[in-house]
Amino acid sequence: MFVRDLLHLENLSVVLVRGAPELLDREITTVALVDPSDAMTCLTPGTLVLMTGPDGQSDAVVPSHDDLAAALRGAGAAALVTEETWTGQETLADACDRHGVALLAVSARTSLRAAVDRVHLRLWAELRARTAEPAVPLGVLRELGSLLNGEAELPAVLEQAAALLELPPCSVLSPTGRVVAATPGGPVSGVGLAMPVGARGDSPFDGWWLVTAATPVSPNAVQTLANLLAPLVDWDRARSAAQREAARQLLAGAALEGQAEFESALAACGFPAKVLLAVVAAQVDAAPATWSADALTETLLCLGRPFAAGTDSQGRALAVVALDPQTLARELEACLPRSRSVLAGHQRLRFGVAACPVRTEEEFGTATVRARYALETADSVGITTEHGTLEALLRSVPVEVASAYHARVLGPLTAHDRENGVSLVATLTIFLDLDCSWTRTARSLDIHVNTVHYRMRRIEELTGRNLSRLADRADLRAALLCTPSAR
């Protein structure tokens, strides 16, 4: 099927917006329906890219028309199709014209999904029509089909298929570049062809890509192998769902009653007895909540450590890993750039690790709370410290909560200091640091001791606290430790 055939498909009103005659002779080998924000993530040679409109994408990072057209040309995409009413079509057409990409439009009466289905049917019909000279011998297809029916694992299927189809070294990669399987001579470094395997997942962390080495290769053979491997993607997703279900009882936490149930839940997740565990929480900011569990699972797969990941009783992404917490934090930090690479610029993946190792059900409950606290304050990978001091404890309090407490307790003092030349906040800090010694405070500030007494009375008046009471001094010390600049 060629680009010009789109103009003559029955029941599909497609018009040429911009494109030289020779651009209409490009062959279409596959079709992809994408949003503007991820239009550059699934480009392969021969792909017909159908792009939805930008409406509703205000929070997503959308490439410029020029960058998009350049990427289409560089990847060897067949053409770009938009809706007839697509906003900014004229500037998009100019960009496509500059980079030598055909731009077509579907009538407003036809949905892009219908266009995708129609093109798929045409491609399938053409493949079926090649029985006299098939792209892949039928005997090869039968042999590979028997492998799949025998429930062979992916590495075995990939190696056998690559040999039968006479393909160069190839790999199956996750979206982050993790090697799922590779033929001898892999994993592939220089990329020749890259084709998606099976349907796209619900998040950018879910799915496989078939990648070949940068040598001459038949696109039909690679596409055939990608199609044959598609059922294995479904099996992998079913297996992951079963693993998350097994992890659900463990991660629910509150549902466990005692050490025996905790050990039983660990065994159901495949952990050996008496294993040392670490707990990690994860979140992808500015993204659907379900992405967080996918991101956590993909990152832990990259680490290659035994783990159980899923969501807790409130839907928050959580995992237990057979590793000590400090090592886990370091390995997550090293893997984070790879996991973040599949996200848009405004989205951010973060992890929180509990510093306390887990061996018992009681320790697990404590660690889950600490992991969530670490996540709240993390920019990348946060890890809690043991709460041996008030300062360490307050560091695990969410920034918003700490800031609100600081403003409520010390707000009157900061307001006073803005309008006067004397800093009551600084005086209070030194007074508490010096164990409430009037003499040493006066000496430190180089003022008379009576001035210290006056300032302390003024602090008591403004804050409503009595500095002779231990509880009130603790309130003021905690408020000082919650100062935003001190965290």
Write the layout of secondary structure elements.
Blueprint: E1 14-18, E2 30-34, E3 47-51, H1 65-75, E4 79-83, H2 89-99, E5 103-106, H3 112-129, H4 138-149, H5 154-164, E6 170-173, E7 179-182, E8 191-197, E9 208-213, H6 219-252, H7 259-268, E10 278-285, H8 290-303, E11 307-311, E12 317-321, H9 325-340, E13 348-353, H10 361-376, E14 381-383, H11 390-395, H12 399-419, H13 424-433, H14 438-445, H15 449-463, H16 470-481
Parallel strand pairs: 2-3, 3-4, 4-5, 13-14
Antiparallel strand pairs: 1-5, 6-7, 6-9, 8-9, 10-12, 10-13, 11-12
Helix pairs in contact: 1-2, 4-5, 6-7, 8-9, 12-16, 13-16, 14-15
Distance between the termini: 61 Å
Kindly provide the radius of gyration, computed on alpha-carbon positions and rounded to a whole number of angstroms: 30 Å
**Highest CATH level, the class of the largest domain:** Alpha Beta
The total of beta strands comes to 14
Number of helices: 16
User: Mean pLDDT score, rounded?
Assistant: 83
Helix content: 40-55%
The total number of structural domains is 4
Shape summary: elongated
Please mark out the parts with pLDDT under 50 across 5 or more consecutive residues, or reply none: none
User: What would you give as the CATH superfamily of the largest domain?
Assistant: Reverse transcriptase/Diguanylate cyclase domain
